[in-house]
């Protein structure tokens, strides 16, 4: 079966919402363990204002402190020119831009309209055009908005076109609040790939309503082979009511491995790293495999 690429976002999407600050050295150890577990890409942090996201105020220290592996891409979310400069100073492999398909959500998130955010991207792209870092354009609320409801497919296609006109290297479609359904995922991705057959697409699902892994399978069926997930299922959008965590990395890797897909990630190492993460945040994580074990883990009859 085909190769599936797994990108972990716990360093940014997961830790940014925690009530307690995770110390810098612990973050570095967490990222290093993820590298050793064989994920293809790690979103290490975000170069946002420390006032906006206090839990990521150590972005430079973490990015400079991690031990990099040549076969892992180390990325960071960047909201503006200052963030881009900070990210490049830390030699990130990939810069992620983010805008919401929903204008209302974008105003809540970054206090700008969607159109104004794209205008803000233009000087950033000029600045980044001759730099080594790849540029990924993320499109939040691609599958629905808790304020506006359904997002028309034409809107998503229009904003993908805007990203491509800017010159991004790929696009991430994010289900920011877990509103995607499997049939919606399949139809949207199929139509996008029909229009842009060679577009590098990543899907970013939240498991707010329990459909995250089903959405992954429909994304694969449509032709997508790159997926974001967060170790332990940690994460969520602070600007959307009821938005719980991302799909769980070890649950996703476990499912794909036992279905016969090719993945680089080591499920056992991901489970061990998830257990370490739980000690850092000091609360139970929503992942399932870390609780139940792998389906290949058999038990003695005497234990029942």
Topology, please?
Layout: E1 5-8, H1 10-14, H2 24-36, E2 41-46, H3 59-65, E3 73-77, H4 81-89, E4 94-100, H5 103-110, H6 114-128, E5 134-140, H7 153-166, E6 170-175, H8 182-195, E7 201-205, H9 212-222, E8 226-229, H10 249-259, H11 267-281, H12 289-292
Helix pairs in contact: 2-3, 2-11, 8-9, 10-11
- Level-1 CATH class name: Alpha Beta
Overall tally of domains? 1
Largest sheet: 8 strands, parallel, barrel
Question: What is the second-level CATH architecture?
Answer: Alpha-Beta Barrel
Q: Report the helical percentage.
A: 40-55%
Q: Please name the fourth-level CATH homologous superfamily.
A: Aldolase class I
Strand order of the largest sheet: 1-2-3-4-5-6-7-8
Mean pLDDT: 94
Broad structural category? alpha/beta
Estimate what percentage of residues fall within beta strands.
5-15%
Q: What would a concise description of this structure say?
A:
Helix content is 41%, strand content 14%. It is built from 12 helices and 8 strands.
